[in-house]
Design a protein that fits this description.
two-stranded antiparallel sheet, single chain, extended
């Protein structure tokens, strides 16, 4: 993680900042890549300790604490 001049932090890979492109909507899209940029593939999302995916009857899989409290739902509609 890189500390930016504006006080925010940014994920990096081997010291280089990672960016997303608004025109990439699906896995495999790389429309923002040009002569200067290269792609990085994310194989696993960071998950804090004590957080797991749990199945619910109404929402399917959700991120939740060990005691079953839902934190947020990823990629939902």
């Amino acid at each position: 993680v890189l500390a930016r001049d504006d006080g925010r932090t940014q994920w990096t890979w081997r010291g280089l900042p990672l960016w997303t492109y608004a025109g990439d909507h699906r896995p495999g899209d790389a429309y923002g890549v040009g002569d200067v940029w290269r792609t990085a593939a994310l194989y696993r999302h960071f998950v804090p300790a004590g957080v797991t995916l749990q199945r619910t009857a109404s929402q399917g899989l959700v991120w939740a604490t060990a005691d079953g409290r839902t934190l947020y739902k990823r990629d939902g509609h």
